[in-house]
Write a structure and sequence with these properties.
This protein is an alpha/beta fold. Helices cover about 30% and strands about 25% of the residues. The strands form two sheets. The chain has an eight-stranded mixed beta sheet with strand order 1-2-4-3-5-6-9-10, with helices on both faces. Strands 7-8 form a two-stranded antiparallel ribbon.
């Protein structure tokens, strides 16, 4: 797993009975990078250096993930979003730009509803603000702790070992977000939506609808690509487009 070469600062913020871990890199305008469900901030490490020419990069281990506390209650995208909001308030960040993958993208969309003036612009990868894991029983039957030996990569992301990983996988069944049309049309944040055309759990139609309802958005459907539309063969083009979009 590639890591950033840049010196980092890190810390924890206690929120209620759990702690949220975060890292910061560089100097400049704040840029938040948020990982997907079952990942951690490590997933963005190889991207950090790419943005440091202009931004101070913030990485967060979202609720229950990475070095943050193990989940002790029912999972909620809104609660995870409120954690990020409290962290940014703690860091005295009034405005920020963001890139979010999947769960991280849903968090950015939720944050845009919770505090509309917070996010100046954002890149949403493989998320639509309207998703319920219960609509995908085959995924839940496969991607669970009973089959964890098939997903050994998950151990690279989490300090809490089997207890933490089991809780994350068990709580996937409670993953749901449903932003209303009125909530979405009220979002004023400039948004770039990115979706692989072969992503299995996010339909092109749902992201197209989101694109139409957002007041200021662009849509990039990446051909012959799955859920991780920003990575692999598409990494160079994603970096070019995301940096141009965020700086425009």
């Amino acid at each position: 797993m590639i890591k950033t070469s840049t010196t980092k600062e890190s810390g924890y913020l206690k929120i209620g009975n759990h702690q949220i871990y975060y890292e910061t890199y560089g100097k400049g305008e704040p840029l938040l990078l948020l990982h997907g469900y079952t990942q951690s901030s490590i997933a963005w490490h190889s991207y950090v250096d790419e943005y440091l020419d202009k931004y101070k990069v913030y990485l967060v281990d979202l609720r229950g993930h990475g070095k943050s506390s193990t989940l002790t209650e029912k999972f909620s995208v809104k609660s995870a979003s409120e954690d990020v909001l409290k962290l940014l308030e703690h860091l005295n960040i009034k405005k920020i730009k963001g890139i979010g993958l999947s769960f991280g993208g849903d968090v950015l969309l939720q944050l845009s509803c919770l505090k509309p003036e917070l996010i100046k612009s954002m890149v949403i990868i493989g998320a639509n603000g309207d998703w319920n894991s219960q609509d995908f029983p085959n995924m839940l039957n496969t991607f669970n702790y009973e089959n964890v030996e098939k997903f050994q990569w998950i151990y690279d992301y989490h300090n809490g070992g089997d207890e933490q990983i089991k809780k994350i996988l068990d709580e996937l069944a409670n993953y749901k977000i449903k932003l209303t049309k009125s909530e979405i049309t009220a979002i004023k944040t400039k948004t770039l939506l990115v979706l692989g055309d072969k992503a299995e759990q996010i339909s092109i139609e749902s992201v197209t609808t989101l694109h139409k309802n957002l007041k200021d958005s662009q849509l990039w459907v990446v051909p012959n690509t799955g859920h991780y539309a920003h990575d692999g063969d598409n990494r160079t083009e994603f970096l070019r487009l995301s940096k141009n979009f965020l700086s425009s």
